[in-house]
Amino acid sequence: MAGKLASSPWIWKDGEFIRWEDANVHILSLAVQFAASVFEGVRCYETPRGPAVFRLHDHLRRLMTSSRTYRMQPDHTIDELVDATLATIRRNELTSCYIRPMVLRGYGSSSMHPEHSPIETYIPVWPWGAYLGEEALERGVDVCVSSWNRPRPNTIPSGAKSSGNYTLSTLMVTEASRHGYAEAIGLGPGGLVSEGSGQNLFLVVDGEVVTPILDGTSLSGITRHTVLKLAEELGYTVREQLVSREMLYGADEMFFTGTASEVTPIRSVDALEVGEG
User: Fold this and answer.
1) Dihedral pair phi/psi, residue 187, rounded to 5°
2) Per DSSP, what are the bridge partners of residue 119?
3) Which residues are catalytic?
4) Which domains does the chain have, with CATH numbers?
């Protein structure tokens, strides 16, 4: 399970390196007051050939799309942010790490009008192991269906990775934790399965790999896309389809995908074992 945040000496901010402890924003910044920030989560893995960042360009392209959606495009290109990310990993002498590129509105306006609040870009990196714990990757996790539903597509842009979207996620996780579960699965406004608190969801049913369609209530995960491609290459039948709640109880296998969670097996849903447990 994710615990206390680790740290690194340096964070990249708009073309320069600043100390970790100096990466502060004002409490009246738009990012703090109104969640005016977008971000990405990226993994860097240690390999025999050195640190390897997983689909960095794709993550940063999505960051740009999110920032454009919220009208706060940074003054940096994707290639510049790629270079900045790699430089930050080197500066902190890390061989594996988690990367959290962020674009936010800083201090300037006391209202929700953003024009006078500067756009700031940060790239922190830090050592981080398995999000749900090393044991979870081996033995799986127990999850529940949340009482909190994912929002309708016309209420908030779920395809943009914004901080505001994750206030609902914290409610889902808090509820799950208080009932003894490691994670939660959210239903969409129509009662169909959407995603986890911060992960996409896959089921294996009769040998076929199934995942909920992207209906505007969930994020189009980069790890999700990778798993779909790999499953097809391995010869599995892959289906993106509507998934009802009862399908969760009849699945042979189930797992979460996401940058933080990676590929985490699900052992039970609502105290019912998945497959053979």
Assistant:
1) -95, 150
2) 105
3) 161
4) 10-126 (3.30.470.10), 134-273 (3.20.10.10)
